[in-house]
């Protein structure tokens, strides 16, 4: 099914195709988003009319390209990657895709970089995409809230983990992180969120979509988005 829909609707060009193969050079499994998920991020950014986007977890730059291509003239994507070799590979893919001029790459621990962004950012982000180490996702979500504007959108990938997230006794750090993340989202009055489970070319997983409400008292209402 993914193969069929990707062929019809995927819009993947050689630059994206090259970025999608980044895992091969690092002898890793295919850990990036799928083509359909990349297109979804692109469309969400367009619907949001996002001018400032934050990405936590660059890897090979595949999702970065999709997001950057949704930006209007003068728009900016800030993307954070802990592993320098991944960031260097992503830089080449961003250049090939002709979006490097609208992308600011930051290399290092997100927990160190995000507080600096909070100090220096003169404008909040319109959209945040979180696709990094799973145990720290609850903390990344906290920073996404801090750095985003009311009406902003937060997307978190790999939240189902093959269904393991339902197992309260699972000792895996990623599973525990995703359970903490969902508990945090459920208790957060500033957002309205849902998690969608997916089955596709990369297996059984899912993503969380959260919208930051203009007023905590309107949690059950639809906010006025731009």
TrEMBL record:
It comes from the Bacteria. The keyword Phosphoprotein does not apply. Keywords: Methyltransferase, S-adenosyl-L-methionine, Transferase. PROSITE patterns: SAM_OMT_I. GO terms for biological process: methylation. SUPFAM superfamilies: S-adenosyl-L-methionine-dependent methyltransferases. GO terms for molecular function: O-methyltransferase activity; S-adenosylmethionine-dependent methyltransferase activity. Gene3D superfamilies: Vaccinia Virus protein VP39. Pfam families: Methyltransf_3. PANTHER family: CAFFEOYL-COA O-METHYLTRANSFERASE 3-RELATED, O-METHYLTRANSFERASE-RELATED. This is O-methyltransferase. It comes from Streptomyces finlayi.
